[in-house]
Amino acid sequence: MFPLGRRRAALPLGCVSGVLLAISAFLSGALPGGDPGPGLRTGGFGAVGGPFLLGLACWLLGLTGWTLAWWWSRAEDGDAAPGRMLARGALWAVPLLVAPPLGSRDLYAYACQGWLWRTGLDPYALGVADGGCPWADAVPELWWHTPTPYGPLAVALSGAGTWANLLTAVAWLRLLALAGLALVAIFGPRLARACGVDPAAAYWLGLLSPLVAVHAVAGAHNDALVAGLTIAALAVTLPTAGDRPPPTAGDGALPTAGDGPLPTGGDGSGLGRGLGWAMLAGVLLAGAVAVKVTALVALPFLLLLVGRRWWAALGAAVASFAGLSAATGLGLGWVTALRGTGELAQWSSPPTAVGMAAGYLLRVAGRPAWFDAAVAVGRALGLLVLAVAALAALRAAWRGRREPARILAACGWLVAATALLGPVFYPWYALVPLALLAAVEADARRRRALAVAALVCACLTLPNGLGVPVLTKTVGAFVVTGLVVWAVVRLRRGSTATA
Questions:
Q1: Taking the domains of the chain in order of start, what are their residue ranges?
Q2: Is this prediction's pTM over 0.85?
Q3: Which of 61, 275, 480, 490 sits a CA distance of 20 to 30 A from 360?
C-alpha cells in the first residue's frame, strides 16, 4: 500500500516542486538583469538580501520535492505506461517554461552569439562584448571576450531567434531545447526496445530527472538538442517490424524489438535498413556534431550499426557538416575557439580534481608555482585514460557488431567517459550520456548509479548559476580524488577476481 501511495503522491508533489523551482528562478535565478546574489561568493549568506534567500529556500525545497516525486514514480517491471510517464514529467515542467533560466546564464551567451552571426559578425573571432551584443550585460563577465565553441548549426539556430529582443531569444532557445527532448521521447523507445529496456524506464531516467528539469527545460542548454539528434541518428539505423523478412520454414518466429537485442544480417549488411536510412542517420549525426563537436564520438558506433552501408552514412555526415559550415559562412572557426573552454579549474572534472589536489599538496610543500602544472598533468592523464576507454569501447563494439545492444551500450559509456574525463565538466554535459544510457543500459545497478549521478549533477549549481565547485575548491578536489582512487582500486579488484 505504501509504495502505491507514494506513486499517487508523486504527481501533485512534482507539480508543487515545479512551481517552487519557478519561484526560485524569479527570486534567485539567472535573471537577465544581473546576478540577484552577487555577494554570495565572497560574503556568504549574510551578503545577500531576503528575496534571494527566499528564492534559495524555494530552490532547495523544489529540488528535494522533484527528486522524491521522480524517485517514487520510477517504473518497475514494466508496471508504468510510457505515455503516462512522459505526460507526468511534462506536467511537472510547465512552470519552468515561463520562468527565467536556472543554474546557468549560458542561455544569454547563446543569444548573443547568435546575434553576432545574424548581424554579420564572426562569433568565432569575437566575444559577445567585443561584438557589441545589446544583451552582453546578461552574460557572465568571464565570457565577454571568449569566442563561442559551438558548431555552425548551434550558432545559426540561436541567431534565428534574435530578431526582436532578449525575451524572444530565450523563448526560441527554450523551444530548441524542447525539440531536443522531443526527439529523445520519439526515438528513445526504439533504442530501449533493442536493448531490452522498458521504454517507461528510459523516459523516467532520461527525461524526468532533476538534471533535465534544471538544465534542459529551465536552462535550455544546447546539450538537449545534441542528445535528441544523436539518439535519433542511432535509432534510425535499427529495423522496425516492417523491415524484417518473414520467418522461413523451420526458423520459428523472428524476435521483435521488445524481445531483446536485435541481430544484424548474417552477411554483414547491418540491420537491414535501406540506403536512405543510412544517409539519414549520417545527416542527423552531422547535425549533432554541428551543435557540439563531442557528438563525433558516436560516429564509429553509428557506422557499425549501419553495416555495409557505412560509406553512405559517412558520406552524408561529411557532406551535411560541410554544407552547414558553408551555408552559415562560419567554416571551422569553432576549432580554435575550443581552447578557451578549459581555462577554469574545477573539481567537477575528475582529472582536473586530481591535478588540483596534487597542486594543493605542492603548495603546502612550498611549491605554489607548480599548481598549474599539476592541473595540466592531471588533465593529460585524463585524456590518456579516455583514449584507453575509447579503444576498449570500440573493441567491445566490434566484437559485438552483430548485436546492436552491445554497440549501443559501448557508445553510451564512451559518450559518458568523454564528458567526464575532459578538462572541464559542467552538469549539463551529462544530459547527452544520461539520455543515451537511459535507453541502452539494462543493468539495474548501473541504472541506479546513473540516477544518483543525475541527481548529483543537478545539485552542482545554485539557481543563479554560481557553481558549487567554485565555492568548495579545496574540499571538493580532495573528495573527488578520493573517489577516483576508490574507483581505481575497485576496478583492479574486479579485474583480478575475473582473471
A1: 2-241+260-344+424-466, 345-423+467-499
A2: yes
A3: 490
